[in-house]
């Protein structure tokens, strides 16, 4: 391409579009700038109010906490404004007058959830690092008993209504129009599944877009900052709730308080008061309040919270506030009392930086949340659960690594088996008997696995090395060995394209009388031109299937299961095409083959009459491909968290056994034993007598012999009309469909290289 | 003895095994994330955790990939030793050295840390550096220097008559020397200490102070490692024992000069034996790229 002025201009414009995306805080207009400024002003004002707050004073103008529950009960029409004339801001008690929680929820939290005996802090030991994913079952306690607290969304979050807008609207909007029973703002199932992903926030970046992160917490022995991703769903996964919450973990007492945060609920400022829900002594509570307040102030200052806000944050907060209920989550961790503090430190060190310390990680108890209550103040929903458990994240990674290593072993075994199989079928005639579809299926699975491994390597930096090694092994298997094998199979079968099955059964070529296409003109494309199209097809199938499989993971459960089961069954029918192929090519029963082989050896002829697939390959491949499926479906605590379904595995194994049994029966009884004898037409026979007419055309000598074009010596031919030639053995020469005559030995040698007539290049039916 | 060794690793089963083993163990340990088992530090692993198995296996794998690369290069350079001793004796000597160096290094380390109150020698090396250093003695002792060359260095900007000329004499073994010194420096003080101890081990073994050099042969090696080569085995000499290495060298020299054994190890040119062998599928695949 010549680069002239216009092309250059286009390139520059494209580059400009690429690099001119709003950087930094993401502001791209005057309106957004004003929005962000208002947002920052609001948060700064609330932070000042938070700084003035102490153990004995309540929330003032903090969004989401302006009204207490009793304010709403007394006057349901009351707006969340500050200050409310009759409200007492100077005191703080843990009751409905001040809290946004109903009285009995508060008492349940105090008596059931956070009820561990805390008299002696040294009695219970809690793990300081609890990064993990917990699983559990959750029950709905009530979704209509408690009044919901109105939480207005400030209107400056809304987008501009026209282009000329510069200042965002003022005021607040109350989301009155929410339908009461919508799934978005209510929980309608009675019991469901719960997943909690806990991650620690130990470091924050103090500049926008800066990679460098700093520690901020000076009281790490006491408070830990967490991020909790909680997802709730019913069993059929029709109703899903995903909550992103900030959490504080009280390391000494094993309590976790998590609260969602959005435009209508600035929960960060409420941690000190709500962490204190307990019946303890006043002085302790006061000390705890101050300590937690200090931790939050440290976080706020180190992260430059207001300065690092972006338009993205603003939009996220707005979306969360419109689409979701706010939740307050109270959790109690089970203590690890079987360990001393030193042991727990050693376990943590070993998990972070393995050196082989005697930490006995295989017996590490799971991180367990013994009790938890989820309460949504603005939707009035209460949920409760018990005993959500999960392995430590680092242990999980370890076990995934072990599985990946095992997988690499399977890939290597598969590569070895494939090489044996390739060695077994090393001539075009024997490759011709292999089914393309059989290997296409195997190839598709391997290729998709390679792609998935490769992408997963980018998302799991801890497992990058084993994942990339797996992807590499898998990719070598799929795109180097299997695809090359497929290409040679495809190339050897090219002259069968566009031919009906009945013709194929006969021997895989068109006769002059029925096809009429003429011989000698067909040009077989060589493998290099085939490989291009085959590789293109391979990659297209690969991408399509991978994208489909990945998107299927997020489908609702029922649809997903139907998809999964059918795909597994279809992709595990890989021997089926080979059975059909065998039937088409028609190998003899094993006994006849052995007899033929002995006869041929006596004649010194190499014959291609073995079964195309090695038994080692068939059994090994089946085993390698079924093992992972069996593991995933029968081992209930597998790493993929797949559900258990033994019946399906049994069905799958029976199906595979059936296929193998069919292959075996074809080996023993001949590959066409299940077809009625009538339906099998006669195959092409290379060994036949010639009419004298044809022989003359080929320039035969007077003794009815013809020069073999390969060895240039004479071939005696049996001629139908001439009796004295009838003592010639038909097995010693071969007549091609294009009527060329060669020695059996010569042509069979040639046919192990190419299925083309050496004289006229027309395709030859394989032996 | 011919001056040039054949290129590649043809008929060097032990060298091949050592090179592949060094690479694979490190690679697998890295993928499976258990490299740390090759780290030996007296405190805490031995004194506190009593993980004595680390003392036994610390030579098997490397923690650092640079060490691994250096070791593989050195194994390749030391293939002359395999040619000199024969595969069976070479692997037997390696196994002896492995035992002696491990015992000496680990034992001395334990002794020093037990007796002396301050910690001067806490950690051991990783990778088979001790074996290398002991073999280095054998290499220096039995491999003749073939050539040497001079590197002349002059100061470019001074006047001609004042010009000082530095001469730097290097010989064909300078690559091995350089590799050994990088290997030692790369592991720091521990590398020096362990390297010195194991070099002494090598000297003692060669001089007969440490027994076993002539008598000890690894059992079953012939069966597993060398069985393929024994059918055409003119390049593979077995020293029946009772001779020192010098005698062996002389005897080898005699045998080399006798006619008929010179190039017997090279593969027969069997192109004409069967003019059209059935081509393996791999060859057919390659053919497709040719057009």
From TrEMBL, chain A:
It is found in: Endomembrane system. GO terms for cellular component: Dsc E3 ubiquitin ligase complex; endomembrane system. The gene is TUL1. GO terms for biological process: proteasome-mediated ubiquitin-dependent protein catabolic process; protein ubiquitination. It is an enzyme of class 2 (transferase). One of its GO terms (molecular function) is ubiquitin protein ligase activity. It is a multi-pass membrane protein. Pathway: Protein modification; protein ubiquitination. Residues 708-761 form the RING-type domain. This is RING-type E3 ubiquitin transferase. The keyword ATP-binding does not apply. Residues 1-26 form the signal peptide.
TrEMBL record, chain B:
The keyword Transmembrane applies. It is found in: Membrane. InterPro entries: Rhomboid-like_sf. The keyword Membrane applies. Its main location: membrane. Residues 253-280 are annotated as: Disordered. One of its GO terms (cellular component) is membrane. It is a multi-pass membrane protein. It comes from the Eukaryota. This is DSC E3 ubiquitin ligase complex subunit 2. It comes from Zygosaccharomyces mellis.
């Amino acid at each position: 391409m010549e680069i002239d002025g216009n092309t250059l201009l286009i390139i520059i414009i494209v580059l400009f579009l690429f690099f001119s995306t709003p950087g930094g805080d993401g502001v791209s207009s005057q309106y957004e700038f004003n929005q962000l400024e208002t947002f920052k002003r609001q948060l700064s004002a609330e932070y000042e109010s938070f700084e003035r707050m102490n153990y004995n004073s309540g929330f003032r103008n903090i969004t989401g906490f302006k009204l207490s529950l009793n304010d709403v009960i007394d006057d349901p029409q009351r707006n969340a404004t500050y200050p409310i004339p009759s409200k007492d801001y100077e005191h703080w008690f843990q009751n409905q007058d001040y809290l946004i929680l109903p009285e009995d929820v508060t008492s349940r939290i105090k008596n059931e959830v956070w009820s561990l005996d805390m008299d002696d802090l040294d009695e219970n030991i809690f793990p300081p690092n609890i990064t993990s994913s917990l699983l559990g079952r959750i029950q709905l306690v009530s979704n209509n008993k408690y009044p919901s607290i109105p939480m207005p969304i400030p209107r400056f979050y809304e987008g501009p209504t026209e282009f000329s807008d510069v200042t965002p609207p003022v005021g607040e909007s109350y989301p009155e129009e929410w339908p009461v029973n919508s799934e978005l703002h209510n929980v309608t199932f009675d019991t469901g599944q719960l997943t909690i992903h806990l991650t620690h926030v130990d470091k924050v970046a103090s500049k926008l877009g800066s990679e460098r992160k700093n520690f901020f917490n000076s009281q790490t022995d006491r408070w830990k900052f967490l991020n909790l991703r909680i997802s709730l769903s019913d069993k059929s996964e029709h109703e899903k709730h995903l909550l992103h919450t900030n959490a504080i973990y009280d390391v000494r007492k094993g309590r976790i308080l998590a609260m969602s945060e959005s435009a209508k609920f600035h929960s960060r400022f409420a941690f000190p008061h709500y962490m204190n829900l307990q019946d303890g002594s006043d002085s302790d509570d006061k000390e705890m309040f101050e300590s937690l307040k200090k931790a939050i102030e440290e976080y706020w200052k180190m992260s430059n919270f207001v300065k690092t806000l972006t338009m993205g944050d603003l939009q996220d907060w707005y979306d969360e506030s419109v689409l979701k209920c706010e939740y307050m989550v109270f959790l109690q961790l089970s203590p690890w009392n079987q360990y001393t503090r030193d042991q727990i430190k050693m376990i943590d060190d070993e998990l972070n930086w393995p050196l082989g310390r005697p930490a006995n990680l295989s017996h590490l108890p799971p991180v367990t949340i013994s009790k938890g209550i989820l309460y949504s103040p603005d939707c009035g929903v209460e949920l409760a659960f018990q005993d959500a458990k999960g392995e430590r994240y680092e242990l999980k990674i370890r076990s995934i690594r072990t599985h990946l290593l095992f997988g690499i072993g399977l890939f290597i075994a598969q590569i070895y088996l494939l090489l044996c199989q390739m060695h077994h079928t090393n001539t075009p005639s024997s490759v011709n008997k292999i089914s393309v579809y059989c290997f296409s299926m195997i190839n598709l699975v391997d290729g998709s696995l390679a792609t998935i491994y490769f992408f997963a390597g980018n998302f799991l930096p801890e497992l990058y090395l084993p994942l990339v090694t797996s992807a590499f092994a898998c990719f070598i298997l799929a795109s180097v060995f299997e695809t090359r094998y497929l290409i040679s199979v495809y190339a050897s079968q090219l002259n069968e394209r566009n031919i009906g099955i009945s013709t194929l059964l006969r021997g895989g070529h068109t006769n002059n009388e029925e096809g009429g296409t003429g011989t000698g003109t067909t040009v077989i494309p060589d493998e290099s031109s085939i490989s291009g199209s085959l590789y293109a097809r391979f990659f297209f199938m690969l991408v399509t299937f991978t994208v489909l499989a990945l998107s299927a993971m997020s489908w609702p459960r029922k649809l997903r299961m139907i998809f999964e089961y059918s795909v597994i069954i279809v992709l595990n029918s890989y021997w089926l095409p080979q059975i059909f192929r065998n039937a088409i090519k028609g190998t003899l029963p094993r006994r006849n083959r052995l007899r033929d082989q002995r006869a041929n050896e006596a004649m010194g002829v190499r014959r291609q009459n073995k079964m195309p697939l090695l038994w080692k390959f068939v059994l090994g491949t089946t085993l390698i491909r079924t093992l992972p499926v069996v593991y995933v479906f029968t081992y209930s605590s597998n790493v993929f968290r797949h559900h258990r379904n033994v019946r399906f595995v049994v069905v799958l194994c029976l199906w595979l056994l059936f296929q193998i049994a069919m292959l075996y029966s074809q080996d023993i009884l001949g590959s066409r034993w299940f077809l009625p004898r009538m339906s099998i037409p006669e195959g092409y026979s290379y060994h036949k007598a010639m009419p004298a007419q044809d022989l003359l055309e080929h320039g035969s000598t007077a003794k009815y012999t013809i020069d073999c074009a390969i060895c240039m010596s004479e071939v005696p031919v049996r001629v139908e009309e001439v009796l004295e030639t009838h003592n010639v053995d038909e097995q010693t020469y071969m007549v091609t469909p294009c009527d060329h005559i060669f020695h059996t030995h010569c042509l069979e040698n040639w046919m192990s290289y190419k299925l083309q007539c050496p004289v006229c290049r027309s395709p030859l039916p394989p032996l | 003895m011919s001056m040039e060794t054949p290129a590649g690793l043809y008929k060097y089963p032990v060298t091949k095994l050592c090179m592949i083993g060094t690479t694979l163990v490190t690679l697998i340990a890295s993928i499976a994330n258990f490299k740390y088992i090759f780290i030996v530090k007296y405190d805490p692993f031995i004194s506190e955790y009593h993980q004595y198995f680390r003392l036994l296996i610390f030579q098997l794998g490397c923690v650092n990939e640079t060490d691994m690369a250096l070791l593989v290069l050195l194994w390749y350079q030391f293939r002359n030793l395999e040619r000199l001793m024969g595969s069976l004796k070479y692997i037997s000597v390696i196994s002896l050295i492995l035992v002696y160096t491990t015992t000496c290094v680990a034992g001395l380390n334990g002794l020093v840390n037990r007796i002396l109150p301050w910690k001067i020698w806490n950690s051991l090396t990783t990778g088979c550096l001790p074996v290398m250093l002991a073999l280095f003695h054998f290499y220096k002792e039995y491999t003749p220097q073939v050539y040497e060359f001079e590197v002349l260095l002059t100061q470019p900007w001074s006047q001609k008559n004042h010009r000082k000329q530095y001469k730097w004499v290097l010989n064909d073994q300078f690559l091995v020397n350089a590799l050994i010194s990088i290997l030692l420096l790369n592991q720091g003080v521990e590398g020096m200490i362990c390297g010195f101890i194991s070099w002494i081990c090598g000297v003692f073994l060669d001089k007969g102070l440490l027994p076993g050099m002539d008598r000890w042969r690894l059992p079953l090696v012939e069966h597993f490692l060398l069985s393929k080569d024994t059918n055409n085995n003119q390049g593979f000499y077995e020293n029946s024992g009772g001779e020192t290495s010098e005698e062996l060298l002389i005897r080898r020299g005699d045998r080399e000069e006798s006619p008929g054994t010179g190039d017997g190890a090279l593969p027969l040119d069997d192109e004409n034996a069967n003019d059209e062998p059935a081509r393996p599928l791999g060859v057919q695949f390659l053919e497709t790229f040719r057009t």
